[in-house]
């Protein structure tokens, strides 16, 4: 597809990553460093796409009072900024990267108290934006004040405009979006295992369970279902195949944004006409490449391509 990829983030965040050697809840913890970066799911996707060289436009709802880190990121990476400014400050989310246990703890805040009129204004803007590009990534949670069916409404409108929508969200908004009639469903979704369980309403402990749930969604009319499975890689299901793509376990500097990098890789490969295996390789390579850094950034393309060649693909 031509034109920029459009990313829509209704609930962006400034991610504050605190790095420490061992997190002990209830005790005094000494941090080694703190890093702050503009983030939130669609912003992270845009940032990774820009690093890869894909033209990208970022929109959504951004607090007027602390928009500067976002503007700096967009300018540095050549991301077209079409965010609607709303009163207040964008949330700050805390990410605790424990280098001892090699795990990240996320503390996510609810976000701006926006009202439905802000969403209506954004929806009007989406009509013009989809004239520029048809691939739309709608990613992340909803800010306080918006009802759970907000993503569903946005997708229905985007589909009317002829967009191809990739949705990455969780909880009640995910359930609402997936309960929509066929013509209002996204073309692609990227839940992680927990999010897929939230939709299914049951635990999905085995890979077979995850594959069945992903097929169920595909059969309902979602062209591509990708399920990220942490260090086990990711599952990619479409009408023709189910593939498990993985790399050996990586000691991540920070896992924050790995799912978003995976989404960026998926959409970039899909729009360039890659087959299911090509999409799976690129997506997992983007995610793995991101794990080596704090913030939504990729190394140069050669490193990502080389990683992609080492991805193991298992046909299920
Ligand atoms: N420790 C790890 N080792 C190797 N790959 C990983 C690791 N953690 C995450 N990944 C890769 O990153 C992708 C996204 O991570 P995941 O944690 O599943 O996403 P999300 O952040 O959306 O929950 C995974 O599908 C996998 O390809
Ligand atoms: O939109 P949500 O679900 O509240 O999540 C927001 C958080 O997710 C992130 O986008 C990271 O997401 P992933 O780790 O799933 O890729 C952070 O930048 C942000 O703090």
From TrEMBL:
Keywords: ATP-binding, Kinase, Nucleotide-binding, Transferase. The keyword Acetylation does not apply. One of its GO terms (molecular function) is 1-phosphofructokinase activity. Pfam families: PfkB. It catalyses: beta-D-fructose 1-phosphate + ATP = beta-D-fructose 1,6-bisphosphate + ADP + H(+). Residues 9-297 form the Carbohydrate kinase PfkB domain. The keyword Ligase does not apply. InterPro entries: 1-PFruKinase, Carboh/pur_kinase_PfkB_CS, PfkB_dom, Ribokinase-like, Tagatose/fructose_Pkinase. PANTHER family: 1-PHOSPHOFRUCTOKINASE (PTHR46566:SF5), 1-PHOSPHOFRUCTOKINASE-RELATED (PTHR46566). Belongs to the carbohydrate kinase PfkB family. Catalyzes the ATP-dependent phosphorylation of fructose-l-phosphate to fructose-l,6-bisphosphate. This is Phosphofructokinase.
